[in-house]
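User: Batch of two.

Assistant: Item 1 of 2:
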Amino acid sequence: MTASMLVGLLSAAAPTVRNSILPLRVPMPTRGPRFTASDTWKILSHDGWRAAFLLEARGQLLADSHDVHLCRETVAWCDERPSVASRDEGPHRELRTHLYSTMQAAERRHSGPPSASAARRVGALPWRRARGTARGRRREEVIMSMAPPEEVECDVAIVGGGPAGLTCALYTSRANLKTVVLDKNPATGALAITSHIANYPGVDKTMAGDELLEKMREQAIDYGTDYRRAQVFLVEADGERKSVYTPDLTVHARVLVLATGAMGRPPTYKGEGELLGKGVSYCATCDGAFYQDSEVAVVGTNQEAIEEAMFLTKFASTVHWITSTDPSPTDGHASDLIGQPNVKHWSKTRLECIDGAASGVTGVQLRPRAADAETLTLPVEGVFIYVAGSKPITDFLDGQPVEMLEDGGVRVDDEMATNVPGVYAIGDIRNTPYKQVVVAAADGCIAAMSCERYLKGRKSVRVDWVHK
């Protein structure tokens, strides 16, 4: 669970509370941002961490005394339903812990100490031990200072800014559909890291991949695309209105296009999966502020790792940059990072494992590549990993009804439509064996025409050229 989820889920809002499975017995005021009980149920039913952070964000950000009652109701609701998760271990215990922390924060701001009944419901609370620490206080201060994210309404939301997503944006923008592209990092996709593109029609063989990508991006923007750099951590794909959540922005769209590519990877380092959300992160922009005056490690040699490590220098006391090779001497960004006074570079070194306890990450073990080198231990509190793989990036689809293939790709038909009406998938996220730029661009064109037909209720696609 990341801070991005904490902030972004504030946008799962609606003006009133509807009747739903969640038994809220407290009248809710109509002023200010509001989420529905059914929204809470949908989140809680598949991910207790997200529900906990949703309520924690509300309790500490919105300064609403009714949040205290809402937290109490949810703690009781969880305890009465062991089917949500195990009562005594795993996510359920963490959920109850975070909910209790929320009640404390909200009650301190409104009515004094937390209720004894709520404390009895929650039971043993390991998170309480950390709240008196400097890190716990910093965490509260960071949460308190956060503002609700911007909300944008559009016709088409495209997650991913590679050749598939940008081609789709070009066509939808030309069709006068308000289009928003959300791109995690323009420097880290498969095309962006390709040194030369010699097999894309009409392109000089000396052109680099990032240069072609920049031209595609500029062309889409020239036709009206709203391009945003943002990491998407959650989408709501069902229903007529789709929602996409990022740390600073929530996009609501009539159509959702998935174009995140296939450079993902499963957790491979020892301790990575177990400590994900408890000190292990893939987004410094989301979580960096939680590590004020703490030591952190950044693993990776790509441009994203360098940018994220530089961002962390604003917060961490020491940033340990761990690379398996030496960065290129001509890479000015890498040189700038190494030159920072609070950066320690561990070159030709591999991450062996990530150590941790119930409270989160406690350190990492490194092994230099030298034959006689011994394992080193660094006492870090956060580990940020930026290592590319070849797996379709679909983690933000957890809990959504989008049908997947056995190989991890998203299943689509000939029009790039998924099994969910109004949701399309293009490019390498489909895990097609034909991973070529021209194929990704073709996917984007097909999806755009399908989107336009879907939104306009046409029986056939409308071509994007004029015969003279």
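Item 2 of 2:
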Amino acid sequence: MTRDVATILEALPYIREFHGRTIVIKYGGAAMTDPALVEDFARDVVLLKYVGMNPIVVHGGGPDITRYMEKLGMEVEFVDGLRVTDAATAELAKMVLVGKQNKEIVLRLARHGQPAVGLCGDDGRLFGSVTAQDIADAIKEARGIKVDKRKIKLEEPIRSIGTHMVDVEVAEGVHATVKTMVVEQK
């Protein structure tokens, strides 16, 4: 009991600082495979909510994806630590992450006293991206100008609906700033 009080007193400045704020927690690795850590994680997330924070959990599940791929006789391939993902692998990954991992996390949080909602990036088009190839295709369709996607300068894929300015090399040495309007994501 004394140790618990000391822990709370030590955490108090952080509780004050982050009270009412949304915090994003990346959950993966050993914390998802060790049964004791799984329970500790859920309990800790619930505690964060009880002390006034708004936790959002973003989770992995790679080992489960690999296990299901192997069960189904699918080839598991990694290049430089990244999974090679074809359409079938992406479909299986979505089933494991959304249909299994996400649901287990939500149920465990509820068991520890905190109702939760599990979402996937596809739900309501929460997440998505527009790539340089998407922009090149749109320019060709709208203006009839063929643009090499390698000439489109994106710091990173566009991930939100709205207006974005993009630097495009439309001809050798000729740059234009193109206004793109993302109204819907695939």
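The radius of gyration is 22 Å.
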